[in-house]
Automatic annotation (TrEMBL):
Its cofactor is pyrroloquinoline quinone. InterPro entries: PQQ_b-propeller_rpt, PQQ_rpt_dom, Quinoprotein_ADH-like_sf, TAT_signal. Residues 1-35 form the signal peptide. SMART domains: PQQ. This is PQQ-binding-like beta-propeller repeat protein. The lineage of its organism: Bacteria, Pseudomonadati, Pseudomonadota, Betaproteobacteria, Burkholderiales. Residues 42-346, 461-522 form the Pyrrolo-quinoline quinone repeat domain. One of its GO terms (molecular function) is oxidoreductase activity. Gene3D superfamilies: Quinoprotein alcohol dehydrogenase-like superfamily (2.140.10.10). Keywords: Oxidoreductase, Signal. It comes from Aquariibacter albus. Belongs to the bacterial PQQ dehydrogenase family.
Amino acid sequence: MTYPTTTSRRPSLRKLMQRTGLAAGLLALAGTAAAELAGSNWPEYHGDWRGWRYSPLEQINKSNIAKLKVAWIHQPGEITQGLQATPIVLDGVLYYAASANKTFAVEAATGRTLWSYAPEMDAVYQKSLFGFYTRGISVGRGKVYLGTSDGQLIALDQKTGKEVWKTRIVDPKACHGCNFTSAPILAGKALIAGPTGGDLAQRGKLHAVDAETGKPLWALDTIKDDPKSWPGKSGNSGGGGAWLSGQYDAKNDTYFIGTSNPAPDYNPQARAGDNLYTSTLLALDPATGRIKWHHQEIPNDGWDFDAAYEFVMLEKDGKELLMHLNKGGFVTVLDRKTGQVQDVWKFAEHVDWVQTVDRKTGALVGRRAPQPGKSDVFCPSALGARSWNAGAYSPQTKLWYSNGHELCAKVTIAAQPVESLAFSQPYFDVSAIDFVGPGGKPASARFAAYDPITGQRAWSLPSEVPGLAHVLATGGGLVFNGDPRGILRAHDAGTGKELWQFNVGSGMRGGIVSYSAGGKQYLVVATGFGSLFPGFSSGAWPEFKDVRGGAALVAFTVE
């Protein structure tokens, strides 16, 4: 089997806090720009800890979107796997990471390079399934933090780009190629990062280091040491991990993270327990790694349905809630203080691996698991009802905007002895796997707006190919989305009507952000197509075999 590769300008919250004398205490608590909400700046991976990917800036709006023009372009000089990162913007400086962890600081108004950094890495990363993936960095405490493709955590001086410290956390040679692909997150004094590994024959973990020194603080084993959960030695090759960035709620001093699927991906009988803490939502004490609560979305996951996607933090009727999309096609709404399920709604149109999910408990009802020696089709596929590219929430419309697709997996289960696996080969336990449309029909895709609590759709637009960039909503009444063909679009947030489009020259897989610099609002888009998705799904969308490579940040503004 082969595996594909392939207008108002408003002062920042930080400045307002400085004026009122609150900055020192709150920033000390947060240990990061996390105390600041997205506004003039874009301080965190999702804009801020709420996971909204929303900018309140309104200088670019529905009345002048037609005047949006390219302001500057920055090219990192490395196009392997494109740009998958989301830039961070603080006080007129934009920070981002490209393939192989090449990291840059540029002037946010001009794109002029201020400094650049390329880490020294073990060449083993080039052989890893996820070796060139870099989804982002974090900035805070005067440092820029990155997790590398060869298993290191590194802190750079924010002003100069010089190394402050580096700590090796995992060794890809010892864990079948696990590494860091996403931005580590600051949570108080801790810097927390999870390595890849759901599809690898290894024992997943989540790691925390001291943000000032890089000294390890704690490691949480996502493979629970419990024979009822992991019989025999199944946990030693049980996968797990937490490969996307988590989110830190400073008010409640809680770090939220979703974990990846167990391995072997499609043979749950080989690990006949609930397989905690894989495919699970975790709320942690960031200082100790203690689990405050957990909710396992998919016990004994047999379909590769990670729980790794973003959390959207909301408040309703006096309750602090979070909503979370699982790859299996359902959204769960929980009380974020207790983890108690509030509701579950169906995101995917075609779901046949389970009859339903109990709306009060989140329990799976009528599950249909893969059977050894048999070939069967399951919808959605391991590529999810949406990929890892996040949606966006607007407090103006109270709608959540997300890409989605209808794609199924046809699998034939057959044991793969762990000792027979090549380096970084996925531990699927299959003899064949293919990705097909549901019910013999073509695969489909859409971009839609939802009530995040009830799931009611406000509007939906068909897409010829799945949107695989992160979505951005803005205070100008706009929603921005990018597709694999390289078309960046602006939609009316209320109706979905397309108001503007621009061809950036290569497909989009990374972030779209907005910020203010020099009195102007800018929109910046990460371009360059990559990741495993196009390779695996090229049977359903053949044009993915010929996607244009590239890597560039493209900035727009209204003159």
